[in-house]
Amino acid sequence: MGTRAWKPTPEQIRAAVGKTVPDVLAPGLRVLFVGINPGLYTAAVGHHFARPGNRFWPALHRAGFTERELSPFEERELLRTGCGITNLVKRATASAGELTRDEHVAGGRRLICVVTRCKPRFVAILGLGAYRQAFERPAARIGEQVEGLGSARLWVLPNPSGLNAHFAPADFARLFRELRLAAEGTGVGPGTNGRGRPGRGRTRTARGQKRAVGGNPNPPKA
């Protein structure tokens, strides 16, 4: 069972600036979900996607990843499903717009190290603008990417914050379900496309940027 749920005070939320939230990781995960960075509410309670109204946990359940809707305080239960959570950038901010380009790029490099060490079969980055910046892919779109990340197949999904008005709950459920079905179809290990054939080629790496990248400069927070 997870930690008993509790609500932080306004003072605790303000004091959460710069804090980090522990990763939920294990070797050989089926899917590793990657948030942009913790919001202050999430950092205050120390559990991922904890702000009320965030659609991550409902989307997981509606997509079939979990048998019931988990609380953020039960996040360790997610490991039983073969899924884990980390963040692209570790430090908490009031807005992801406070993150610098260099932080995004450094976060991409750190993520590559995590993937190399833990070897998840799929990686799902939850934020299109953050992915574009971290990996210099200004033309990237929602869904599976042509290039992988290390040995993992790479997906980009929308930021599940309740403030993200571009996607409805049904959209999150559909997109997360597509990822689940792809992950369930991968029974022959990393580097394949789910049908027993080699995946689609190149490995994606993070690198420095020469220009600003498209996407919402101030994506809503978890």
Q: What's the total number of strands? A: 7
- Calculate the mean pLDDT score and round it: 86
The N- to C-terminal Cα distance equals 23 Å
CATH superfamily: Uracil-DNA glycosylase-like domain
Beta-strand percentage?
Answer: 5-15%
Shape call: globular
Mind telling me which CATH architecture this is? 3-Layer(aba) Sandwich
* Strand order, largest beta sheet: 2-1-3-6-4
Supply the number of structural domains: 1
Question: What class, by secondary structure content?
Answer: alpha/beta
Helix content: 25-40%
Task: Look up the CATH topology.
Answer: Uracil-DNA Glycosylase, subunit E
The first-level CATH class name: Alpha Beta
Query: In sequence order, what are the helices and strands, one letter per element?
Result: HEHHEHEHEEEHE
Total of helices: 6
Give the C-alpha Rg. 16 Å
Largest sheet: 5 strands, mixed
Unreliable spans are 187-219
List keywords for this structure.
alpha/beta; 5-stranded mixed β-sheet; globular
Explain the layout of strands and helices.
Layout: H1 10-14, E1 31-35, H2 40-45, H3 56-63, E2 83-87, H4 101-118, E3 122-126, H5 128-135, E4 143-144, E5 148-149, E6 153-157, H6 169-184, E7 203-204
Parallel strand pairs: 1-2, 1-3, 3-6, 5-7
Antiparallel strand pairs: 4-6
Helix pairs in contact: 3-6, 4-5
Structure description:
- There is one protein chain.
- By secondary structure, the protein is α/β, with parallel strands linked by helices.
- The protein has one domain (25-185): Uracil-DNA Glycosylase, subunit E, CATH 3.40.470.
- 27% of the residues lie in helices and 12% in strands.
- It contains six helices and seven strands, in the order αβααβαβαβββαβ.
- The strands form two sheets. The protein has a five-stranded mixed sheet, sandwiched between helices.
- The longest helix is centred in the middle third of the chain and has 18 residues, at 101-118.
- The protein is globular.
- The two termini are 23 Å apart.
- Residues 187-219 have low confidence and may be disordered.
